Amino acid sequence: MEASGNTTDVCHGRVSVPSSAPFDNIFAEPVLRPLELGDLLREHREQRGLSQQHLADLSTVSVRTVRNIESGCIRKPRRQTLSLLADTLKLDRISCALLNDAAERSEPADGGLDLHPPHPFSSFVGRLGDRDAITRTLTAGDSRLAVISGLGGVGKSRLAMEVALRLREQNGWPVLWVPLGESGDGGLPQAPAADLAVDAIRGDAGSSARLARLIGGNDALIVLDGMPGGSSVEGFAFALLRACPRLRVLATTTAPWRARGAMSLRLAPLAVPSRDLWNAPAQVTETESVRLFFDRMHQGRSGSGLPDADPVAVAELCRRLDGIPLALELAAARCAELSVEVLLHNLITTAGGTSDQTLPGEFGPVWEVIAISCDFLAGPQREHARLLARSAERWSIENVAVELELSISAAIDLVDAMAAVGLVRVENRGTSPEIVLLNLVRRVLLASVP
């Protein structure tokens, strides 16, 4: 694809983007093409901190040959020459294959992939600090891998989308969005390269090599959305990061991925208003969860004469929905037919005894994703979580140990396992943290009691 107007060259002219492209013009797609042999050799040499002369001396290849390869004067060097250079640069198997593949092409690459992040269907509310932190980390090179984990429906994909859009706007990076979860990407357009990535994760070596060849030494971002975890996905990500020195990977997952050297972010639900603020409506409406609810409610009833909703009723609804964005959006959508007060009444009246804890029908998707998160708890941990769901709303670690007759160490392990998948919120109050089980998680756990 040829970019019209002025262009900005990124990484030796391999990515072309409009230099003044507006942030929302995400369909002005950058093009990612495989690097030529000279570009690849230069990337690996500079990554090792070697000059052309130093590389020539160590490999016994003449410095003239090194210069001619990097300048493009030599496009098909002898195999022995490439082997000497690859051995000196200590390239891994994939990088060697990419170098040899580039040498087999006698003409410059004229193909490419149009890669762009999916377009968001709604405004981005809250999370600005998280967005900026991940963007800074990936841009500055502090880590080339970032993992966002958290409860289903908490907004991991939306945050990843915003980071991708930011990097696309600021740096012109191509973004390959790869939907891996059961729900896919919600019907968003999928680049053909995403199929390459999925096939590579499933063990197709040819797809791995082709994808790595296309990325080469270019700046680029791959988003693995809804990553199930496991060696196949993690192995794919690390192999690609090793082969492509300027690639960044951003993954979203329900189960945390403790990868060495990765930036890891446990995404909590949006902040909910404290009951202490209910006499100050202006402060209530500035809370992130309330802002999201009103934004989605107005979006769904634009131009229909939306009446003002009672901020206190909205605040209580947001508290009972734990500030989980998916739950808030579903509730806001129902305001086209029901008032906030009716929604709140339905939510309260379906939370009776332990045998009647199911959510109203409009919240079915929330029930499903929370149940999936609960399934990450091991058998004994899930039973302990059910016992906690029957007791107090807040505990200290000591209270958990006493309630469940566990050692302090075992209580810490249980809370850590529940926090890892977003089932509890940890609040620092006073001298020790308090553990709060989310309201919707409590209902899912109690409803599953035989």
Write a compact overview of the structure shown:
With 450 residues, the protein is an alpha/beta fold. The protein has helices at residues 37-47, 52-59, 63-71, 79-89, 93-104, 128-140, 156-171, 192-201, 205-215, 231-243, 281-285, 288-300, 311-320, 325-334, 340-349, 364-374, 379-389, 397-404, 408-420, 439-447; strands at residues 7-10, 15-18, 31-32, 113-114, 145-149, 175-179, 220-225, 247-253, 263-266, 394-395, 424-429, 432-437. Strand 1 and strand 2 form a beta hairpin.
Q: What's the mean pLDDT score?
A: 78
What count of helical segments does DSSP give?
20
Helicity level, as a percent range?
Answer: 40-55%
The major sheet is characterized as: 5 strands, parallel
Radius of gyration from CA coordinates: 26 Å
Question: Strands of the largest sheet, in order across it?
Answer: 6-7-8-5-9
The amount of beta strand, in percent, is 5-15%
**Secondary structure category:** alpha/beta
Annotation, overall tally of beta strands: 12
Distance between the termini: 59 Å
Unreliable sequence segments: 1-31, 106-114, 183-189
Shape: elongated
